[in-house]
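hey so i finally got around to running the thing on that chain from the lab meeting. sorry it took forever, my laptop kept dying and i had to restart like 3 times. anyway pasting the input first so we r on the same page abt which one it is
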Amino acid sequence: IEEIPSEVGVVHRYSGKYNAEINRGVARKLGAQLMKDGVPDITEEFVLEHFQFWGYNPPFTIPAFRRNEVWLKLNNDQVTFLRDKYPVTSGGRLVGGSKSISGTTIGLGAVGLLVGMFA
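ok and heres what got predicted. didnt touch it at all, straight out
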């Protein structure tokens, strides 16, 4: 058993087929949205070098029902920036949020300020 420290990052969830090209495209869209939102130190190069693909379903799952994610770890300054820009209400919901990634309406909750507690 290995203890893994908690990390904070952003995630873009999508369904459908996946392969290296699709994953890189989704990572580019996530990076573009983060840059549009003004997150410090995010570049397309950084995103493409550091993103992780997470697939949750077996390969025989119908693509429309697959859950896929592209995840990117954030540093403390980036997390602070997002928390300040998109505050959380007392009910735990985010106020505001990003308006779109390639025309798809999403909030920061969908882009996901993901707080991973793996301890």
